[in-house]
Every structure is written in structure tokens, then in C-alpha cells.
Amino acid sequence: MLIKRPDDIRPSEITTEGLYAQRREFLRQAGLAGLALATPALWLPSSSHASRYSGLSRSPSSTDEEMTDYDDASSYNNFYEFGTDKDEPARKAIGFKTHPWSVTIEGECGKPGRYNLEDIIQPHTLEERIYRMRCVEAWSMVIPWVGFPLGDLLKRFEPNAKAKYVEFTTLHDPDRMPGQRQPVLNWPYREGLRIDEAMHPLTILAVGMYGRKLPNQNGAPLRLVVPWKYGFKGIKSIVSIRFQEEQPYTSWNEASWREYGFYANVNPEVNHPRWSQKKERRIGDWTKRKTLPFNGYAEQVAHLYRGMDLSKEY
After folding, report:
1. Which among 20, 39, 19 has a CA at the least distance from the CA of 30?
2. Local structure of 243: helix, strand or coil
């Protein structure tokens, strides 16, 4: 199987979101058993068997927009560790074991060390946050995440004055993550935020969605959610958090810097080299809508970038 890097892929070789969604919509409406067997939803666990959280409160930062259907949000995924096609993660992550799990805290902080997942989560109050999420391929979702503010966690490790950035790293285990056997990216996956972005109250670490434990294909057991940025900033299956003085290298910026900048703020006035960012479609909805600056969160976050040229710092 030939795996191409982003710079080698011609626009004509890319399956558009519209074609993919059209196929799923046709299969859904057909109601034929034979066709239904071909849909990614076949690989999802029954919702009646999914572990659920109880007693969640809804965050006041939540949107009132209609939520994306759970089956769509859990079967149309970008998680290259389990494959580059959108339906591969839901199929190939079924047996992925997320317990036990630990996270290493490193760098410019007073309390580095290796912490069990339970130690990371338990001191924090989980809440539901319904966020708009925007991906670069002109599609979007509205997802009710279950999580807690990243900043509350970071403060526990006492970052020092040199901690200007936060770097995140995904698990690197090709035996458990078959997509890592292909050199489509320089593994392990790495992402980063400026420290003020990481501390912003909208930024969360998610451990679930739709009131349930986070599905493997959506980044279990722990993933980043930054709602005003493009989806590739939402690193999944995190095993390392590092405080550092210099801006970290990030996987997509390293693989294709012309297409994926470090900041990744939603800016509809800056086109991706292969498509426009001015409009978007919600998964499960054929209606095109105007893309909002900072994904609609400008009032809360625009001040973080005052004085920056957002046509260059993308």
C-alpha cells in the first residue's frame, strides 16, 4: 500500500467531504440491510453498552446549536494512528486498551513526573461543554464534550517563568496503533499551544463526549479540545505534556508547513492551498454556512492575538 505525504498529494486524488457524506447519507436513507452492513456504524459499540457519566453540569460556554449525531461524530474521524481514511479509526481502534494509562509531565515546571490517568482526572470536576468544532476540509461538527479546563490541570504542576509554550505528545506504539507502521507522519504525533492559549478557560482536556466515556477513535482516554482552532490541534491519546520556553515543533506543521501553521486559528479569509475556508458544512447537514472567525469564539479569544498578522501567523 502506497502512503503519500501531504505535499505529494494532488487535489484530484482527495476524496471530498461532500462525496463521503453523500455516500453515508445514501446508505442511511436506503434502509437496506445489505447496504447498512457497509457503513462505519457497524463497527461502533451499541450506545446501550457505552459507559456513561452521571451528574454532569452543562458549561455556560456551551453553544445552543443543534448537535451532530453521535454515530456521525464517532465514525467520521481524523486519527492517522489508526488509518488515513475517515472510517478506519472506528474499525481499527476497537481493541485499543486505554487502561492503565499514564501521562508524563516534563520541562519548565515545579512538579514534573509520571502521573496515572486517575491522578490527572480525579481532582477536577467534569462538565459537559457543547462546542463547535471546525476541520480544515470545509466541514464541521457540534459536539458535547465531557472534560475539564486544561489550565486547572497545568497550574497543579507549577509552570515557571520560562514556560512560554506547552507541548503535547500522543502514544507511540505501532503494535497497538497500526497507522503508525506507515510513514505518513513523523511519529509520534506532536502538538503545541502558547501558554496563554493553554490556560484559556475554553481549552479543555476531554475524557468523554455525549455523556459517555471517550470512544477510542475519538482520542481515548484523554484528548485536547481547543474550539477556536482547526481540528488537527486536538491531539488525541495524550501521554506527555511538556512546558518549554521555545515554540514546539508540531506534526502537521513539520509535514506541510505551507498548509498547517502553528496557531491554526480559524480564519476564513485565509484559504487552505487546496480549498476555500469561507464556508463549511456540518456533518449530516447539506447546508453551507459562513465560516466564522475563530470559529465563532472571537469575543472570547481575539484579544490573545492582538497585534499579530493573522494572515501570516496562521
Report:
1. 39
2. strand
